[in-house]
């Protein structure tokens, strides 16, 4: 029997079943990318919920927690942006597997970059409000407060649109069923854990600034 080499360098025999397998293997990395995006989405959903709870309690009242959770989620957000940008780049560079998988609907194709931009504005303005120079404080705080409402609306639409898919994709890694194996579940989990670890480090290094902030800006509201 002749043999060929799959993308991971394993030799495999060429026959009907193996060819079907081979085709499945090639789209494996598309599936792996989607699962990473979804798994990071689940973690973000938890972190955003916690962050919105601190907003409901009053960000200034629980400022250490607000800043710590804010810093914690920054690397995880970057991971999400990396995995979705990767899919976008592969698609526009005409990668056959990503092309075959198709693109999201027009609404989601527009919403995705808008959500990314709003998230960046929200996080950067939060950090500048917190540790930036005092001359930038009023503008940064206003930007942070205003972008929050736009961001929340964009995020809610994004989450509603992807809700079922998120749990379906994530469940495949934790409850693998026959025929639905995507390479690298260990790498995906490690990536998410590494993102969280980077966030914890960031939070520990940078969030202990709350008392200085409150002393400096006590006259605001
Ligand atoms: C601010 C945070 C987030 C940003 C910036 C972001 C960004 C994006 C972008 C740009 C896309 C590609 C376009 C699209 O398919 O809509 C995407 C896809 C996706 N997002 Fe998010 N997202 C965020 C949060 C979330 C959350 C909280 C969830 C979980 C509910 C989630 C679940 C998904 C899923 C399942 C996909 C499709 C993955 C695929 O099939 O390739 N995202 N996200
Ligand atoms: C998803 C992430 C975040 C959300 C949803 C969010 C949301 C908000 C909202 C809505 C406010 C206004 C609260 C009010 O006026 O009562 C606020 C205030 C604030 N946030 Fe954030 N924020 C986030 C991330 C961050 C980050 C990463 C930092 C910095 C580490 C930060 C630092 C602050 C500070 C310093 C205030 C001002 C408190 C004050 O003087 O009134 N935030 N945040």
UniProtKB/TrEMBL annotation:
Organism superkingdom: Bacteria
Residue ranges of the TM segments: 36-59, 65-86, 106-128, 148-171, 192-215
Transmembrane helix recorded as keyword: yes
Residues covered by region (Disordered): 1-23
Keywords tagged on the record: Membrane, Transmembrane, Transmembrane helix
Protein name per UniProt: Cytochrome b561 bacterial/Ni-hydrogenase domain-containing protein
Species name: Kribbella alba
Phylogenetic lineage: Bacteria, Bacillati, Actinomycetota, Actinomycetes, Propionibacteriales
């Amino acid at each position: 029997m002749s043999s060929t080499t799959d993308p991971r360098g394993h030799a495999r025999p060429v026959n009907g079943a193996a060819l079907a397998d081979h085709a499945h293997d090639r789209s494996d990395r598309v599936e792996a990318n989607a699962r990473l995006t979804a798994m990071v989405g689940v973690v973000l959903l938890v972190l955003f919920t916690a962050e919105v709870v601190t907003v409901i309690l009053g960000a200034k009242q629980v400022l250490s927690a607000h800043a710590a959770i804010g810093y914690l989620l920054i690397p995880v957000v970057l991971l999400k942006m990396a995995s979705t940008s990767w899919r976008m780049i592969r698609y526009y560079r005409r990668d056959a597997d990503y092309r075959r998988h198709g693109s999201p609907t027009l609404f989601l194709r527009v919403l995705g970059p808008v959500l990314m931009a709003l998230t960046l504005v929200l996080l950067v303005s939060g950090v500048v409000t917190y540790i930036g120079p005092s001359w930038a404080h009023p503008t940064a705080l206003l930007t942070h407060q205003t972008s929050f409402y736009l961001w929340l609306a964009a995020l809610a639409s994004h989450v509603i649109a992807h809700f079922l898919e998120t749990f379906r994709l994530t469940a495949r890694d934790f409850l693998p069923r026959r025929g639905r194996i995507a390479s690298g579940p260990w790498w995906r989990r490690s990536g998410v854990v590494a993102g969280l670890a980077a966030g914890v480090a960031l939070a520990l290094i940078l969030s202990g600034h709350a008392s200085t902030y409150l002393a400096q800006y006590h006259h605001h509201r």
